[in-house]
Q: What sequence folds into this?
């Protein structure tokens, strides 16, 4: 692994932007050395400013390049590189508004292994988490580090979840928030609330879940489409170009998910989750619609395209 000093360019006026051109030029020089040393048959970029110098240098040297745009809103780096890219793999329809139509291939995003048979894991998954087989399950996840707003929204309404009969809250708090949340729950005997800092068996978690509450990252959404779970998306506001909101809206506009903004979550999230877990017809509708957006062979399709491009050098 080799690092580049390149940084993102801030849209607002800031002193940090003064360093941008110098770090970019240095990164281009380093990228040229890296590409020459490695001598790749193909260069693949998945977005983000760090991929820019490498792909730009590769394009100048006549090396085939492939861009994988994971989100429904193209990042500025990928848009700048698209004109000279050989192929552009996307996860959403309608991406021709950002990229040359003739280069676009709808592949989806690769997802973690082990999710193929989640529906066959129900019995052992319930045993793994200690959840009664008859219980409905609300799965709350906010990434490995956690999502502050989601956690606070759930914590502030914890009594509402604790009072539910026949419903279990399976809650991944993230490592940053787990200790403080457990301190606040100390002494509480909530048999139907299962709290983890990190769930290492997401296949089991998806298997037991009747409803998922989640951020709207690209790979998370791809997984949710694949496992066909009803979801309430709470897009993170702390991402470039607000792309998580755009990811969420791509599903909401097809009646494949519900969305609660980060700002509205403290007031609305718990009630939305409680309402949806009680509405089996709506769960079924959302599950069917989100499954139609699944692209399960993304890894094979992208790998095959890379191999094809490798023959061009």
A:
């Amino acid at each position: 692994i080799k690092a580049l000093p390149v940084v993102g360019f801030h849209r607002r006026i800031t002193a940090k932007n003064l360093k941008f051109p110098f770090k970019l030029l240095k990164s281009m020089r380093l990228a040229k050395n890296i590409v020459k040393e490695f001598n790749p048959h193909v260069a693949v970029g998945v977005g983000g400013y760090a991929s820019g110098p490498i792909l730009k240098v590769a394009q100048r040297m006549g090396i085939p390049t492939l861009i994988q745009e994971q989100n429904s809103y193209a990042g500025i780096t990928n848009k700048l590189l698209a004109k000279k890219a050989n192929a552009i793999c996307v996860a959403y329809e309608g991406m021709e508004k950002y990229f040359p139509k003739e280069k676009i291939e709808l592949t989806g995003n690769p997802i973690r292994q082990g999710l193929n048979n989640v529906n066959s894991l129900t019995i052992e998954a319930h045993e793994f988490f200690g959840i009664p087989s008859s219980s409905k399950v609300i799965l709350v996840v906010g990434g490995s580090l956690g999502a502050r707003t989601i956690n606070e929204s759930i914590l502030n309404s914890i009594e509402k979840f604790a009072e539910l009969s026949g419903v279990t809250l399976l809650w991944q708090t993230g490592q940053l928030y787990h200790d403080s949340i457990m301190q606040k729950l100390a002494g509480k005997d909530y048999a139907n609330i299962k709290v983890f800092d990190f769930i290492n068996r997401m296949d089991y978690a998806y298997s037991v879940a009747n409803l998922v509450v989640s951020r709207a990252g690209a790979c998370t959404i791809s997984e949710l489409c694949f496992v066909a779970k009803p979801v309430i998306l709470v897009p993170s506001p702390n991402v470039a170009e607000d792309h998580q909101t755009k990811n969420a809206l791509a599903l909401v506009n097809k009646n494949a998910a519900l969305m609660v903004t980060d700002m509205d979550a403290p007031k609305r999230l718990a009630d939305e989750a409680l309402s949806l877990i009680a509405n089996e017809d709506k769960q079924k509708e959302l599950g069917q619609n989100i499954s139609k957006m699944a692209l399960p062979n993304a890894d094979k399709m992208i790998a095959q395209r890379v191999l094809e491009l490798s023959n061009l050098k």
About this structure: The chain is about 40% helix and 10% strand.
